[in-house]
Amino acid sequence: MEQQSRRKLVQTIIFLGIFLALILLTVFLGGRKNFGLQQYAQLTIDGLRGGAIYALIAMGFVMVFNVTGIINFAQGGFVMLGAMLAVTIYEWELPLPAWMHLLISVLLAILLTSLIGILVERLSIHPARSSSTLTLIIITVGIYIATQGLALLTWGADAYIYPAFTTLEMADRTIRWMGIVIKSQSFWIWGITALVLIALAFFFERTLIGKAMRACAVNRRGARLVGISTSRMSVVAFALAAALGAIGGIVVAPILRPSYDMGLSLGLKGFVAAILGGLVSTPGAVLGGLMLGLIENLAAGVTKAGMKDIYAFILLILALLFRPQGLLGVRKTAVEADGEDH
Questions:
Q1: CA contacts within 13 A on the Cβ side of 167
Q2: Residues 267-293: b if buried by 16+ CB within 10 A, e if exposed
Q3: What is the pLDDT along the chain (342 residues), one digit of tens a residue?
Q4: How far apart, in whole angstroms, are the C-alpha atoms of residue 238 and residue 75?
Q5: At 179, is the secondary structure helix, strand, or coil?
Q6: CA angle 63, 64, 65 (to 5 degrees)
Q7: CB–CB of 238/72 below 8 Å?
Q8: What is the model's pTM?
Q9: C-alpha span between 225 and 292 (Å, rounded)
């Protein structure tokens, strides 16, 4: 036990050392481009905006993993469906004020995506509940590919437009302060992410279903023995994960023009954020998402914007090598199904 603790301490020190070295390298490269405080502040704000999106998606990964023990790579599909369904519903001609029209499109898109998440669990994960964890993970990959293909047939390859929440128009309001530019949509993203985190905290702490899901996360077999249906909790987990993915896709839609393939990159980065957070807690997912968004944006800013995606997966490799238990220091391995109801 002592040797294991020492090994974890060494891994943590190495990870922090690498992280510090990356910060120093970023400052050095930024200095070569004559970056000042204004440039770093701009990169930081943009990174935190992207990080909040990754956090929403990462919380969906955490939700399913805690209850079922599998990594749901269909999460990116839920992100895409939320955005595309919201765009489609918003295009309906309804005799309503613009703000109410937007609100209806948001709520209906989240509801429909949640229902799709339930169907995914009932039609694919539940029938294969006796299979190995690896098999179930591969099934989720297949679900994402099928979802993207159906989206291509439904919406085509074109990118769509969704209005900004503040102006209810395609052009968003811009705030300029000391040379720093902030889109109004950024405040919506940060605020909605904070509200979702608070709502989830209340759900897990104050509701019976939330407490049942926490029990499944601790010990699924023990939860079954005290009368908790792990099968029902799996349905709830997928519904919540789909809703979280949809929210992430909708709030980023005014900034990133939605398309059938938008879920791939966002889903993978949400997975990286979940890994950084330890894959077992929603606060860890938020911390991992913000960290990922900040690091990749700063690194891309001082080097090349086209290399942005590379840094996310470099960070994933470093985390798996030197800090596999995540930023919050909690390590949990996936439990094999062994015939359990998911």
A1: 14
A2: bbbbbbbbbbbbbbbbbbbbbbbbbbb
A3: 677 777 777 767 876 787 778 778 777 788 788 888 888 899 999 999 999 999 999 999 999 999 988 999 999 999 999 999 999 999 998 888 989 999 999 999 999 999 999 999 999 999 998 889 899 999 999 999 999 999 999 999 999 999 999 998 888 999 988 888 999 999 999 999 999 999 999 999 999 999 999 998 888 888 888 888 989 999 999 999 999 999 999 999 999 899 999 999 999 999 999 998 888 888 889 999 999 999 899 888 888 877 788 888 888 888 887 777 776 655 444 433 344 444
A4: 9
A5: coil
A6: 95
A7: yes
A8: 0.89
A9: 39
In the chain the first and final C-alpha atoms are separated, in Å, by 32
| Exposed/middle/buried for residue 41 (C-beta within 10 Å: 0-12, 13-18, 19+) | middle
CA dihedral (230, 232, 234, 236) positive or negative: negative
73: Cα within 13 Å, side-chain hemisphere: 18
Q: Which residue has the tokens 């942005």?
A: 308
d(CA 274, CA 272): 5
Instruction: Copy the structure tokens of residue 112.
Output: 């429909």
Q: Return all residues near 292 (Cβ < 8 A) that are at least 6 apart.
A: 51, 54, 269, 272, 273, 276, 312, 315
The CATH architecture of the domain made up of 2-322 is: Orthogonal Bundle (1.10)
Structure tokens at 99: 């703000």
Domain boundaries, the chain: 2-322
Structure tokens, 243: 């809703």
Q: In sequence order, which residues have a C-beta less than 8 Å from that of residue 303 and are 6 or more positions away?
A: 29
CA distances from 83 to 41, 51, 244, 250, 263 (A): 29, 18, 12, 5, 10
State how far the alpha carbon of 291 is from the alpha carbons of 101, 196, 246, 332, in Å. Answer: 34, 18, 22, 21
As a whole number of angstroms, the distance between CA 195 and CA 148 comes to: 29
CA neighbor of 121 nearest in space, from 188, 179, 40, 63: 63
